[in-house]
Specification:
Two copies of one chain form a homodimer. Chain A is mainly alpha-helical. The first copy, chain A, has one domain: Orthogonal Bundle (Arc Repressor Mutant, subunit A). In chain A, 55% of the residues lie in helices and 11% in strands. Chain A has a two-stranded antiparallel ribbon with strand order 1-2. Chains A and B meet through α1, α2, β2 and α5 of A and α1, α2, β2 and α5 of B. Chain B binds a DNA duplex through α4. Chains A, B: Keywords: DNA-binding, Transcription, Transcription regulation. Chains A, B: This is Metalloregulator ArsR/SmtB family transcription factor. Chains A, B: It comes from Croceitalea rosinachiae.
Chain lengths: 107, 107
DNA sequence: ATTTATCATCGTAATATTGCAATATATAAA
DNA sequence: TTTATATATTGCAATATTACGATGATAAAT
């Protein structure tokens, strides 16, 4: 089907899955790494850096924005993307909580 | 296309994406949580617990096994799944490393 | 030996994701 | 105003994912 039965899972489970889904692509990982590596708020040299077409990058940025992992500030005709540190830290906390809580006690 | 251009990304980026992809589904999150909650190595009560058909669960378990996040021990006609703590901890370390390394220094 | 129970695999339908060309939009420069 | 530059959106093709019924394989129970 390709459709996930979100209704049968709780909010936390769906939230976790959504976060993981946004991160589940090497292009988006590379974009995040590239954005963070820059001293200043570097914009879409991302297209040059990553080997993907401009619309593709634009779409990936949109997905990263969908969970507020990055923010884009308009600067003239350019857009300056940077990581949203608050959300970044928040998500790291959520994931660690999941990993610490979900641990086997068998085998 | 639906096909990710893995060739243009490095091993670490692809590995990260693969890990995230395996976790990017609420059913698999729920399965992990359920397995970890049990005192003993509970097997496919998972099917009863989660509201999905047995082949679906089996497929999800296969994906979790694909990165060694869980291991399945055969016990008669049952299979006993549990979390692979070594790998679990390893992945948590990898993710934290990513989150700590990839942080913005702008905006 | 047959039946039953547990789990895996196969095949398939429905939907999602990835990527890009074409196009739209918006701002800056000329 | 026209042109160039930067980014977003649309539409589409190719592939991936999710889910399940049918079927297979295996082991315990009868």
């Amino acid at each position: 089907m390709g459709i996930t039965k979100t209704q049968i899972f709780n909010v936390d489970q769906n939230q976790m899955a959504t976060i993981f889904k946004v991160l589940a692509n090497p292009a988006r990982i590379a974009i995040l790494e590239y954005i963070s590596k820059q001293d200043a708020c570097i914009c879409n040299d991302i297209v040059d850096e990553i080997g993907l077409a401009q619309p593709t990058i634009s779409q990936h940025l949109k997905e990263l924005k969908s969970i507020n992992l990055i923010k884009g500030e308009i600067d003239g005709k350019k857009v300056c993307y940077c990581i949203n540190l608050d959300k970044w830290t928040d998500i790291q906390r959520i994931l660690n909580n999941f990993f610490n809580t979900t641990k086997s006690n068998c085998c």
